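tool_call predict_complex ligand=adenosine-5'-diphosphate
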Amino acid sequence: MVEAQRPKRKSPYPLWFFLPAAIIYGVLFLVPTATSFWYSLTRWDLMTAEYIGLENFRQFFSEPFLVQGLINTLIYAVMTSGLKTIFGLLLAVLLTSNLIARGFLRTVVFFPVLVSTIGIGITFTVMMHPTRGIINVALEAIGIDGPGWLTDPALALFSVALVDLWKGVGLATLIFIAGLAAISPDYYEASRIDGATRMQQFRRITLPLVWPATVTVITLSLIGGLRSFDLIWAMTKGGPGFSSDVVASVIYKQYQAGFYGLSTAGNVILFGLIAVIMVPLTVMFNRREVEQ
Amino acid sequence: MSGVELKDIRKSFGALEIIKGIDLDIKPGEFVVFVGPSGCGKSTLLRMIAGLEDVTSGLLTIGGKDVTYAEPSQRGIAMVFQSYALYPHMTVAENIGFGLSLAGRPKAEIAAKVREAAASLQLTHLLDRKPKALSGGQRQRVAIGRAIVRNPQVFLFDEPLSNLDASLRAQMRLEITDLHKRLGATMIYVTHDQVEAMTMADKIVVLNGGRIEQVGSPMDLYNKPATPFVAGFIGSPKMNIYSGAAAEGLGCKTYGIRPEDLTLSSESGRWSGKIRHVERLGADALVYFRVEGFGDMVARTIGSAAFQPGETVWATPQAGAEHRFDTPNPVAA
Amino acid sequence: MRRTRPVVVGGISLAVAAIIFIVPFFFIFLQAVKSRSEASRLNFDLPKEWLLWDNFLAVVEARNYQLLLAYFNSTLITVFSVTILVVLSAMVGYVMQRRRSRWNGVAQVAVLIGLMMPPAVVPTIGLLQSIGLFKTMTGMVLIQVAYNLSFSTLLYRSFIGTIPRDLDGAALIDGAKPWQIFFRVVMPLLKPVTVTNIVVQSIAIFNDFTNPLYYLPGKENVTVQLTLYNFQSMYTSQYNLLFMNILLVTIPPLIVFIFFNRQIVAGMTAGGVKG
Ligand SMILES: Nc1ncnc2c1ncn2[C@@H]1O[C@H](COP(=O)(O)OP(=O)(O)O)[C@@H](O)[C@H]1O
Ligand SMILES: [Mg+2]
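tool_result ok
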């Protein structure tokens, strides 16, 4: 009898709060992402799309310079991520120890994160000039014949990655500093009583306990590395030749050239690359976290 | 002033039933205390009355009106939360007047009502402060003030004193009792502290595991606990409770005797045992001893009693003070 | 002995780190105040004449005051997209944190995808064209909102977890409607994370180069980063002006950083910790 009338009361947390965000995100991000799978199978001029099957992908994997972009993307991502993790942790340890001017140094290390990537790219391009750049001039002063940082095809990608490290290591350091701050000093005192050396403390206490921060740094910098475009574009435009091209710059170049289908295929490949790397990695990291 | 009626009220979170059928009749103007161990569902029940939790099934009326599915603001209730839930970004005056301002009342009316409520709670000099700048007791009063201006038919309190220190708690207990006398409104008060329940309530509702164990006046529950659970929960120090062979020897499933209902002697009595420990509280002393073949026992005696650990003591229950239950002791089981 | 060695090692590595991180900024400043011929030598010599003001004027006046237009456009895009972003992501984070519904899982996946995946650029251009938003400020603003929603939502959701639910209950009993609970009770309490969101997203959007490059081509729409990029090819022989431009682009984040250091750090680490 009571059950007869059961007006469902309205929640104080209305689902329509999702709506405006969902519309913008759905229309401008999800819809293009979804349709990209179709367009990647077409020859497309933004007006008409002609289905050509896997032709774009076949081309992508048969043109050496496109394959090069794919390999470069991997090298670049792994290298920047690895370097940021290592140097980020070292800097964080240094900047959490008892040092003069610690606050100032943290600021100095972090500030490049906030500066325009294009500005930094141009600055380092100039500083890396093979003859007049101050890096090589400085090296010459101590008797070293500096390389063509950005002009040597074997070196260009690595040079850009170093600048990426310079610009991005501050964020990694910041995350590691937060992670280190979360470790209770009790562990260090207890292990001192147990007779642990500085090095043993670092390996047996700091490293395992700062793992969540490490996961964050690796994850963020890998994603950033796989997607990176603007720094490379500002410094080398993928050159010399195609030696520092990555998937993101290939996408842009093919777009500029009017190969919209091929460009979109590059995009789909980038989705796949990120998914193939990040999904297992996230699962693995989460599992390790659960075990601990 | 209006009563509250609960008819077979149930609540489930997913598949888990937390409130398992509550029938309760609260008279207009009554001060009712829900008491029970932590996690027994007191807050959930109170929040259902407030309308902050949906009722899974059953019927809830306030002042004779079915409010089972009514909005919280339409039920004629006000609530004081355990955390006080004062709006941190608003001044005391804005906190108290927020409900009125939402209702679109004229500014002058709001100001007058806020001032009136504040005056009755000695908050007038604090009206421009933010909650952060108040002491625990003052926050408590603001929370009560916010409830008062709503002029509710029913006040709901969820462990309002648990964040205060002991002396302040005793004082606020009196203030809330006074408030009840002054306003004459129906009040439902949740606590896990049986002292609060005993000292404040017209009627105590003992909850356990989502069910009502017993409803009655404080002295009813003390004198005639219906179940071993109530017997053990009401009264301090706890009643001595025995089950199994010891109880069967006395003709019941569970047997109970309060420490204050035992007469101690150093010569003779029903039970005897060696004293393990004596706690002297000043006016009273608690004597702990073990009766062989029966169990541990506590007795309350006068503070000046000369019992010492190691001595043998005899205990005898006072006539008519023994409790016999036909249900097994849930704690021992 | 054992105590001095770490100090020495630390001191040296700090000096090295400081030099590495400061020198490029010093270089930028130095080139920006030199004359054209001095700057073209790309070295660390101090300028004979400090041409800070002259170079500044030259850059501002270049290409018919293009830089001013760029600042105007970038500011407009930043202000509008951050405003929309803050309101919408706070709403999403709030309901995600407060309410259990089957849409939560969907929202969570959407947030994750948004954090991880790059946008599909050419299909987006096609779509913007078809709804008339390609090469428009409106389109650019909405794109920035869409691309940055995930991060903002993440920040808001974790912060809203620290706002006691009893406040919502109290407001509900006081007769607040759902939108009043949110805008009058919860939103004001989100101020710290709102400041973080505003600061971090403003810098990100102001510094964004890629998205304006794709979605906002055209002279009348130039943004600060695009201008700088274009100046790079235009000023190959006028490094002083190029670096003055870089200096000008570097100053806004520097100012923001000086005032909101704490909020930036909070936002960057919080957003990072649960990615
Ligand atoms: N939203 C919820 N979801 C699931 N279980 C809940 C929820 N709220 C309370 N519970 C459970 O219901 C039981 C009763 O909780 P509560 O009413 O807060 O107890 P009390 O106030 O008596 O300590 C507890 O076991 C608690 O874990
Ligand atoms: Mg409770």
